[in-house]
Amino acid sequence: MLGSDTSVLPGGKGANTAVAAAKLGAKVALLGAVGRDGYGELLLESLGSAGVDTSLVRRSDRPTGVAYIFVTPDGENSILVSPGANSALTEQDVELADARVLVASLEVPLATVEHAVAVAVERGIRPVVNISPMAQLSAETLAALDPVVVNEHEAAQLMGDEGDLRGLLDLGPRSAVVTLGARGALVIEADGTQQVESPKVDAVDTTGAGDAFTGALAAELARGKDLVTAAQLAVKVAAISVTRKGAQPSYPTADEVGG
């Protein structure tokens, strides 16, 4: 199988989410790990230029994590992730300062994520977890999430044969958001469900669109917006991101989304 050109760009779910939020004006710090290599330097430079505080990013003797992303002509992608340095992130590395929202994905060890959520709850910080890649969270962790963020495929894995997405709340989270690609997102709360439509765009590259959504969602929640209002901005941010190549370089500023 032959492809076209290869590009090396900064990425990773946590880093992407942090950059997306920071470009919208949120004050963001990233907790993660990079290796002492060129990829690590590239990532730290990208984070810094977006305004992300990298003081909590650990340096590891393991190589920086890498994602191999294959993009088809219609803009869809498939991804293979080698976590590298992030695999060594431990519970002892978790530091949460004065934050309003904690966002986590599962490209770091599950035990570390669950510990971070527990610390957030103790400190009155709103925990948001994107269950990607898929893993089984404890009942205690799920019960703390407000919201849990998943795409349709991840929702199906969580729920098994259950077809009604509202059933996600039966798993324990206080709220849930299901991203629906070009169709927007579904916001599920105890008092109802609302679909948030996405603007219609011509997709060039969908890489990192879900991370853009999660970052924008968290930024709005940190500003005190309700979940539906936060999702309305998040779908706009994700829609803009797919019209450009790459992940972090494709993320819009607040001015570009009119926020």
From TrEMBL:
Domain Carbohydrate kinase PfkB: 4-253
GO BP term (any one): D-ribose catabolic process
Domain of life according to the entry: Bacteria
EC number: 2.7.1.15
GO molecular function: ATP binding; metal ion binding; ribokinase activity
CDD domains noted in UniProt: ribokinase
An annotated GO cellular component: cytosol
Family classification: Belongs to the carbohydrate kinase PfkB family. Ribokinase subfamily. Belongs to the carbohydrate kinase pfkB family.
Alphabetized HAMAP family for the sequence: Ribokinase
Name by which UniProt lists this protein: Ribokinase
